[in-house]
Amino acid sequence: MIPIRETATGVVFRIRVVPRASRCEVAGIQDDALKLRITAPPVEGKANEECIRLLAELLGVKKTQVTIVAGHASRTKTVNVEGRKAREIAAVVPAT
To answer: Where are the domains of the chain?
Structure first.
């Protein structure tokens, strides 16, 4: 299970991004972060946009509720999801 920290507005957790994958999917857990495989290349913020889209779809929130708060140019990013509790995220995230 990944560490999920609750804040006043939602939750914060880490993701590990693998760009230029064959398809967009959750690929388990790596180094205390949710591993995401995305098709977008890591140029001009396209990978970040795809991460936000995938997370919003996975967690059932609007794209505007998902923000990257750290690691914009890194494969390991910290994301904030507004309007969700840690237990709701834990129910969706695989426990691998």
So the answer is: 5-92
Contact 81, 11 (CB under 8 A): yes
Considering only CA atoms, which of 74, 60, 46 is closest in space to residue 38? 46
More confident residue, 57 or 94: 57
Instruction: Inform me whether the pLDDT recorded for 75 exceeds 90.
Output: yes
Q: What angle do CA 83, 21, 94 make, to 5 degrees?
A: 45
pLDDT of residue 1: 80
- CB atoms closer than 10 angstroms to residue 53: 15
Q: What pLDDT, in 10s, does the model give residues 42-70?
A: 999 999 999 999 999 999 999 999 999 99
Architecture of domain 5-92: 2-Layer Sandwich (3.30)
Within the chain, where are the H helices?
Answer: 46-59, 86-92
